[in-house]
């Protein structure tokens, strides 16, 4: 996907947020949406999203 340092920091932050809010479906949903946004911007295969 071409992830660099900035994306890796975001991913680490998402992991921390999910672990910290493991029972908070709203927060996990926010993280899921942010992950989807990143994956759409940098798809594994062109045209995947």
From TrEMBL:
GO biological process: methylation
Top-rank taxon, per record: Bacteria
Record keywords: Methyltransferase, Transferase
EC number(s) reported in the record: 2.1.2.1
Transmembrane region(s): none
Enzyme class: transferase
Signal peptide: none
Keyword Iron listed: no
SUPFAM superfamilies: PLP-dependent transferases (SSF53383)
The protein, known as: Serine hydroxymethyltransferase
Organism: Pyramidobacter porci
């Amino acid at each position: 996907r071409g992830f660099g340092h900035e994306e890796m920091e975001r991913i680490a932050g998402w992991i921390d947020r999910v672990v910290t809010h493991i029972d908070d479906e709203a927060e996990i949903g926010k993280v899921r949406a942010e992950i989807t946004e990143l994956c759409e911007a940098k798809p594994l295969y062109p045209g995947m999203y």
